[in-house]
Amino acid sequence: MADLTELEKRIRVLEDIEAIKNLKGKYLRCLDLKLWNEMEECFVEDVVADYGENMHFKGRKAILEFLKGSLGQDIFITSHECHTPEIEIVSDTKARGIWKLHDYVVMQPNSTMTGWAHYNEEYVKENDEWKIKYTSYTRSFEEWVMKKPS
Protein backbone atom coordinates (compact mmCIF):
# COMPACT_ATOMS: atom_id res chain seq x y z
CA MET A 1 0.00 0.00 0.00
CA ALA A 2 1.27 3.47 -0.92
CA ASP A 3 2.11 5.81 1.89
CA LEU A 4 0.67 9.33 2.17
CA THR A 5 3.69 10.98 0.52
CA GLU A 6 3.43 8.68 -2.50
CA LEU A 7 -0.31 9.30 -2.80
CA GLU A 8 0.23 13.08 -2.63
CA LYS A 9 2.81 12.82 -5.42
CA ARG A 10 0.48 10.77 -7.60
CA ILE A 11 -2.37 13.23 -7.05
CA ARG A 12 -0.07 16.15 -7.91
CA VAL A 13 0.86 14.44 -11.20
CA LEU A 14 -2.83 13.97 -12.07
CA GLU A 15 -3.56 17.60 -11.19
CA ASP A 16 -0.65 18.74 -13.38
CA ILE A 17 -1.91 16.66 -16.31
CA GLU A 18 -5.38 18.19 -15.96
CA ALA A 19 -3.87 21.69 -15.77
CA ILE A 20 -1.95 21.06 -19.02
CA LYS A 21 -5.14 19.80 -20.69
CA ASN A 22 -6.88 23.01 -19.60
CA LEU A 23 -3.96 25.06 -20.90
CA LYS A 24 -4.25 23.42 -24.34
CA GLY A 25 -8.00 23.97 -24.31
CA LYS A 26 -7.50 27.66 -23.53
CA TYR A 27 -4.95 28.00 -26.33
CA LEU A 28 -7.35 26.44 -28.87
CA ARG A 29 -10.31 28.55 -27.70
CA CYS A 30 -8.26 31.73 -27.92
CA LEU A 31 -6.99 30.77 -31.38
CA ASP A 32 -10.47 30.19 -32.79
CA LEU A 33 -12.04 33.23 -31.11
CA LYS A 34 -9.00 35.42 -31.90
CA LEU A 35 -8.46 36.31 -28.24
CA TRP A 36 -4.82 37.26 -28.71
CA ASN A 37 -4.34 39.03 -25.36
CA GLU A 38 -5.69 36.04 -23.46
CA MET A 39 -3.69 33.63 -25.60
CA GLU A 40 -0.51 35.44 -24.54
CA GLU A 41 -1.04 33.95 -21.06
CA CYS A 42 -0.54 30.44 -22.50
CA PHE A 43 3.14 30.98 -23.34
CA VAL A 44 6.36 31.67 -21.49
CA GLU A 45 8.16 34.78 -22.70
CA ASP A 46 10.86 32.85 -24.61
CA VAL A 47 8.53 30.24 -26.16
CA VAL A 48 9.61 28.63 -29.43
CA ALA A 49 7.17 27.56 -32.15
CA ASP A 50 7.81 25.46 -35.23
CA TYR A 51 4.75 25.34 -37.47
CA GLY A 52 6.51 23.91 -40.51
CA GLU A 53 8.83 25.02 -43.28
CA ASN A 54 9.77 28.71 -42.94
CA MET A 55 7.46 29.10 -39.94
CA HIS A 56 9.84 29.13 -36.98
CA PHE A 57 9.31 31.72 -34.26
CA LYS A 58 11.02 32.61 -31.00
CA GLY A 59 9.28 34.61 -28.33
CA ARG A 60 5.67 35.18 -27.36
CA LYS A 61 5.42 38.43 -29.35
CA ALA A 62 6.69 36.84 -32.59
CA ILE A 63 4.29 33.90 -32.32
CA LEU A 64 1.29 36.11 -31.62
CA GLU A 65 2.18 38.43 -34.52
CA PHE A 66 2.37 35.40 -36.82
CA LEU A 67 -0.97 33.99 -35.66
CA LYS A 68 -2.70 37.37 -35.88
CA GLY A 69 -1.27 37.96 -39.34
CA SER A 70 -2.13 34.54 -40.70
CA LEU A 71 -5.47 33.74 -39.04
CA GLY A 72 -6.56 37.04 -37.49
CA GLN A 73 -8.19 38.44 -40.58
CA ASP A 74 -11.98 38.41 -40.85
CA ILE A 75 -11.85 36.17 -43.92
CA PHE A 76 -10.65 33.27 -41.75
CA ILE A 77 -12.97 31.17 -39.63
CA THR A 78 -11.23 28.36 -37.77
CA SER A 79 -11.98 25.35 -35.65
CA HIS A 80 -9.08 23.61 -33.91
CA GLU A 81 -9.54 20.47 -31.84
CA CYS A 82 -6.95 18.43 -30.00
CA HIS A 83 -7.55 14.88 -28.82
CA THR A 84 -5.83 11.87 -27.31
CA PRO A 85 -3.24 13.69 -25.21
CA GLU A 86 -0.10 11.84 -24.20
CA ILE A 87 1.25 13.91 -21.32
CA GLU A 88 4.41 13.04 -19.42
CA ILE A 89 5.27 14.92 -16.25
CA VAL A 90 9.07 15.03 -16.32
CA SER A 91 9.57 16.89 -13.03
CA ASP A 92 7.68 19.24 -10.73
CA THR A 93 8.22 22.03 -13.28
CA LYS A 94 8.63 20.31 -16.68
CA ALA A 95 6.34 18.24 -18.87
CA ARG A 96 5.96 17.02 -22.45
CA GLY A 97 2.87 16.38 -24.49
CA ILE A 98 1.72 14.96 -27.82
CA TRP A 99 -1.74 15.84 -29.11
CA LYS A 100 -3.72 14.75 -32.16
CA LEU A 101 -4.88 17.89 -34.01
CA HIS A 102 -7.86 18.23 -36.31
CA ASP A 103 -8.37 21.68 -37.76
CA TYR A 104 -10.83 23.19 -40.17
CA VAL A 105 -10.21 26.57 -41.78
CA VAL A 106 -12.71 28.50 -43.89
CA MET A 107 -11.10 31.11 -46.10
CA GLN A 108 -14.03 33.20 -47.22
CA PRO A 109 -15.51 33.31 -49.74
CA ASN A 110 -14.39 30.24 -51.63
CA SER A 111 -12.07 27.71 -49.99
CA THR A 112 -11.68 25.43 -47.01
CA MET A 113 -8.89 23.35 -45.55
CA THR A 114 -9.29 20.36 -43.27
CA GLY A 115 -6.10 19.13 -41.67
CA TRP A 116 -4.73 16.50 -39.34
CA ALA A 117 -1.47 16.70 -37.44
CA HIS A 118 0.27 15.92 -34.19
CA TYR A 119 1.43 18.63 -31.82
CA ASN A 120 4.64 18.02 -29.87
CA GLU A 121 5.00 20.36 -26.92
CA GLU A 122 7.06 21.11 -23.86
CA TYR A 123 5.65 22.83 -20.81
CA VAL A 124 7.10 24.55 -17.78
CA LYS A 125 5.50 25.57 -14.54
CA GLU A 126 5.98 29.28 -13.73
CA ASN A 127 4.48 30.79 -10.59
CA ASP A 128 2.50 27.58 -10.08
CA GLU A 129 0.96 27.75 -13.59
CA TRP A 130 1.77 25.54 -16.57
CA LYS A 131 2.81 27.39 -19.74
CA ILE A 132 3.83 26.33 -23.24
CA LYS A 133 7.62 26.47 -23.64
CA TYR A 134 7.89 24.80 -27.06
CA THR A 135 5.27 23.89 -29.64
CA SER A 136 5.45 22.28 -33.04
CA TYR A 137 3.28 20.16 -35.22
CA THR A 138 3.77 17.68 -37.99
CA ARG A 139 1.07 17.53 -40.62
CA SER A 140 -0.07 14.08 -41.63
CA PHE A 141 -2.74 15.16 -44.10
CA GLU A 142 -4.51 18.20 -45.53
CA GLU A 143 -7.58 18.38 -47.72
CA TRP A 144 -8.27 21.58 -49.67
CA VAL A 145 -11.58 22.42 -51.30
CA MET A 146 -11.79 25.35 -53.68
CA LYS A 147 -15.30 26.43 -54.64
CA LYS A 148 -15.94 28.02 -57.99
CA PRO A 149 -16.99 31.65 -57.71
CA SER A 150 -20.69 32.16 -58.47
Structure description:
With 150 residues, this protein is α+β, with helices and mostly antiparallel strands. It has one domain: Nuclear Transport Factor 2, Chain: A (Roll), CATH 3.10.450.50. Helices cover 31% and strands 49% of the residues. The protein contains 3 helices and 6 strands, in the order H-H-E-E-H-E-E-E-E. It has helices spanning 4-33, 36-39, 60-71; strands at 43-50, 56-58, 76-89, 94-107, 111-126, 129-146. A 6-stranded mixed beta sheet has the order 2-1-6-5-4-3, with helices on one face. It is elongated, with a radius of gyration of 17 Å. The mean pLDDT is 95.
Brief sketch in words of this structure:
Helix content is 31%, strand content 49%.
Proportion of beta-strand residues: over 45%
> In angstroms, what separates the terminal alpha carbons?
70 Å
Which residue ranges are poorly predicted, with pLDDT under 50 across at least 5 consecutive positions? none
N-to-C SSE series?
A: HHEEHEEEE
Number of domains: 1
Helical segment count:
3
Compute the number of strand runs.
6
| Residues in helices, as a percent range | 25-40%
- Structural class category: alpha+beta
| Shape-level CATH architecture | Roll
Radius of gyration (Å)? 17 Å
Mean pLDDT metric? 95
For this structure, what is the CATH class?
A: Alpha Beta
Morphology: elongated
Strand order of the largest sheet: 2-1-6-5-4-3
- Major sheet: size, sense and barrel closure? 6 strands, mixed
CATH level-3 fold name: Nuclear Transport Factor 2, Chain: A
